[in-house]
Amino acid sequence: MEINGKKDYNNYNLFLCKKIFEQKIDEQMKTTKVVRRRENVVTDYEKETRTLILRVTEEIDQHIADKIRKKLDSEIEIYSPRKVVFDFNGIEFMDSSGIGMVLGRYKLVKMLGGTLEIINVNKRLKRIFEMSGVSRIIEIKDEESEKNERVI
Amino acid sequence: MKGLFDNEMKLEFSSKTNNEAFARIAVAAFVSQLDPTIDELSDIKTAVSEAVTNCIIHGYGENSDGIVKIEARIFLDTVQIEISDTGKGIEDVEMAMRPLYTSKPDLERSGMGFTIMESFMDEMKVESALGFGTKVFLKKKITPKTNEENIYQDNIEYINEKKEQIVDEDYKELKADTNK
Questions:
Q1: I want to staple B59 with a disulfide (CB 3.0 to 4.6 A). Which of A69, B6, B76, B85 is the partner?
Q2: For residue range B45-78, what is the model confidence (pLDDT) as tens digits?
């Protein structure tokens, strides 16, 4: 910034301008909320335990089941997890498309030598899982049994 | 009362899977005028969703040019829903209705559609003609909540009397038992 002991005012002004501009942007970023479209099918992978967790926030019908299927299949291929967890927390509705989707994933995970678990299932979903016999193959933990486990 | 039914609605939409949510929510909104419980409403939503999925996946074979038609009627406290397509039809209805039978295992269909419809609704009927399409009739009675409450309120004195009698009789029995 200094030439022969004197400040280079041309460059210095430019430098100040830049700094002020950056500060302003930072402030704006802090005050404005970043609005992003909420993704309704989200997966998390925990490296240490090699667990893939799926969270869904939408009613599961044929349309959403297809979406989940595509996403999970590619992620299972990438990570080859030891355990896959379906977190159905907050899901009030599922039809038979969900059953097919879950069974398909179960076969895939089992083939790769892993296990599958379903947690946070409400009464209605549990009834559908029991009707179709899924609960005989796959471990299903409902909301109540989870609470009891915590108490114990 | 106008006509035979108290209320009636008709709905037609393209056979695309992203219309399923719209279809079941529309029917649920129509039924909600009967003041159903949350369980009853989700029973109807699940059954409608199964029927509509069947129309789209099996009837039209995922060809989105087709039209799925829903007609719903309310008569007193029962809902009648007709869901129809003009797709390829079902060859053997009895076989299709068998639990876990599916004609499309490659699409990971579970074969539980008709079973779920049957167990969640009071009545279910399937009519189908090869090459002409399929029609599913669903029927469910909505328990009138307000009526039960009214009956209880109207007869509250009688119920209380009965209650005292029953308690007295129980008490006598208990005494007799202890005396023995």
A1: B85
A2: 999 999 999 999 999 987 889 999 999 999 988 9
Mean pLDDT of A36-58: 84
Same domain assignment for residues B157 and B135: no
What residues make up the domain containing B68? 7-141
Percent of chain A with pLDDT over 70: 80
Do B19 and B102 fall into the same domain?
yes
Contact B53 A128 (CB under 8 A): no
User: Which pTM does this prediction carry?
Assistant: 0.73
Asked whether the predicted pLDDT for residue A16 surpasses 50, the reply is: yes
> Given this model, what pLDDT does residue B1 score?
45
> Does the active-site annotation cover B150?
no
User: Region B99-110: what's the mean pLDDT?
Assistant: 86
> Into how many domains does chain B fold?
2
**Catalytic residue at B109?**
yes
ipTM of predicted assembly, 2 dp: 0.71
Of B17, B45, B113, nearest to A93 by CB-CB distance is B45
User: Is the distance from CB of A95 to CB of B116 less than 8 angstroms?
Assistant: yes
Mode of pairing for the β-strands spanning A139-142 and A115-121: parallel
**Order of strands, sheet of A139-142, starting from the edge strand that comes earlier in the sequence:** A41-46, A51-56, A83-87, A115-121, A139-142
Pair (B123, B175) in one structural domain: no
Our CA-based measurement puts residue B32 at a distance from the nearest CA of chain A, in whole angstroms, of 17
Q: How far is A94 from chain B (nearest CA, A)?
A: 7
